[in-house]
Amino acid sequence: MKKIIPILLFTLLIACAVKQKGADGKSGQDGKSSEKIDISANDIKTSMEYLASDELAGRATGSEGIEKAAVFIENYFNANDIKPYFETYRDNFEFKNRRSSNPDEAIKGFNIIGMIEGNDPKLKNEFIILGGHYDHIGQGKEVNGDKIANGANDDASGTIAAMEFGKYFAKSKTNKRSILITLYSAEEMGLKGSGHLAERLKSEGINAYTMINFEMIGVPRASDVSMAYMSGYKRSNFAKTLNKYAGEEVVGFFSKASEMNLFMRSDNFPFFKELNIPAHAISTFDFTNFDYYHHVDDEADKMDYKHMASFINKMIPALEGMMNAPTKEVVLKDE
Q1: Is residue 65 within 8 Å of 59, Cβ to Cβ?
Q2: CA separation for the pair 267, 251 (Å, rounded)
Q3: Which of 28, 135, 177, 215 is least enclosed by beta carbons within 10 angstroms?
Q4: How far apart are CA 132 and CA 69, in angstroms?
Q5: 213 close to 279: Cβ distance less than 8 angstroms
Q6: Rounded to whole angstroms, how far apart are CA atoms 304 and 22?
Q7: 41-324 has CATH 3.40.630.10 classification
């Protein structure tokens, strides 16, 4: 017995050490978390019920409601160890809304930017940008006494997806490349927030690899089509690469995205324009599965939280594979 016990202990220690190491011999460095971290539908719902609540009054840029939304996101980042990329989480800018009754009045906006540093000494200098717009239109056409356009699907859903990805990678530490979680205001006023951030990042010489904008992912598509679709599908091999790592077609082609020029109508476009990188919007809203676009009934109780959690969880291995590949697999193509 005196000889058997040390042998057993030695065996257990070796087994534990092997279990904790990744395929490259380093703990957590091969793009696979040593523990399974699932995104919870309840967590998504909790965030949604605040961001799309009447208290935030539709999150119009320049309003008290969007300030409350910004503080909520900042607190979320801080609580989940998502660090500021700039000196603070806020990326401030001003612009004039020529469509307003006072076109010379300057409107103050602010994007919220967090970072999860990559764990590879070289690849961490390359950035994956994930984002969504957290502003909305404020008020809409009154229905049954309700004027608040809560913007649950548009785009609290995409905002929360980006936040959840940030929480996951900050906890799992499986990303070799660094990640920016970028949440924009003034999208509804002409992509002002994302435009400002893209220009700023370009001026500062960021080494950006790719960008994904999550735009309206709160409702599921029909069962006979892909779970989501990507704008500008033919402009790069991004969808093909993500699906390879997901092990299934999560992101498909949607002909109306091209017909409606969605590629240039959402927050991905400034990053494509300024940084010349593969930059796309991913959505599960296809104009047939939700009747409340820019409507006061775009509310939290109409979101499908199981669908949202399923989409985010399916996207995690897709993102991990792409962001941990030794070379830049995703490249631009002539459409």
Answers
A1: yes
A2: 18
A3: 28
A4: 13
A5: yes
A6: 35
A7: yes
Cα(41)–Cα(50) distance, integer angstroms = 15
- How confident is the model over 303-320, as pLDDT tens digits? 999 999 999 999 999 999
> What are the respective helix, strand and coil percentages of the chain, to the nearest 5?
40, 20, 40
Which of 219, 200, 222 minimizes the C-alpha distance to 307? 219
Torsions phi, psi for 62 (to 5 deg): 90, 0
- The pLDDT tens digits of the residues spanning 289-298 come to 999 999 999 9
Mean per-residue pLDDT for 149-160?
98
Residue type, 311: F
Domain ranges of the chain: 41-324
| Predicted model pTM | 0.90
Report CA-CA distances (Å) from 38 to 33, 35, 53, 290: 11, 10, 25, 27
Q: Name 210's bridge partners.
A: 128
